[in-house]
Amino acid sequence: MAEETNNYVDKRESVSIAFEILNNLCKLYEKKIDIKKYFFDNNINSVAIYGAGVVGRHLYAALDVAGMQPKYYIDRKAKDLNLHIEEMVLDVPDNYPQIDALIVSVPKYFFEVESEMHLLMPDVEIVSVEWIFDYLF
Fold first, then answer.
1. Which of 21, 40, 47, 90 has the least C-beta neighbours within 10 A?
2. What pLDDT is attached to residue 88?
3. Residue 84: HSE in the Cβ half-sphere, 13 Å Cα cutoff
4. How many other C-beta atoms are found inside a 10 Å radius of the C-beta of residue 24?
C-alpha cells in the first residue's frame, strides 16, 4: 500500500511540474516574450531536447515557431514511445549531431541526465527548461 501511495505522489508531482512548464510556455506567448532571447543572450545557436514526452514536444513546437528548431530529441525510451512525430528521436547517442545546448524537459531527472549527458557530450551546455523561464520572467 505504501508503494502505491508513493507512486501516486510521484505521478501527481510529475503532472504538476509538467503543468507548470506548459503554463510558462503559454505565458511566453501571452506576454509576447521571445524564447530565443535566452539562447541569444547565452550565445547558444543550436539545441536538442532531452525528453520526447508531452513537455518536450510542446517545447519543440515553441522553439520551432520562434525560428530555433531543435536538431533532435534524446529519450531513453525512444523505441518504446511509439511516437508519430517527424523529428529525429535518439536513444542516448554515441555519435550525435553537434549542438551548443541540450535542454532537459524533465526537471525531476535533471541532475541524473546532466551527469550522464556530460560524459557523452562534454562540450555541450546542459540546460533545464526551468532555467529558461527563470531567465525570461
1. 40
2. 64
3. 0
4. 19
Q: Which three cell numbers stand for residue 55?
A: 513537455
Residue 117: what residue type? M
pLDDT attached to residue 10: 78
pTM above 0.90? no
Distances (CA, A) of 135 to 49, 107, 110, 132: 18, 16, 17, 5
Task: Check residue 18 and give its pLDDT.
Answer: 93
From CA 102, how far away is CA 121, in angstroms rounded? Answer: 9
CA distances from 93 to 63, 109, 119, 121 (A): 22, 18, 11, 9
User: 102 and 70 in contact (C-beta within 8 Å)?
Assistant: no
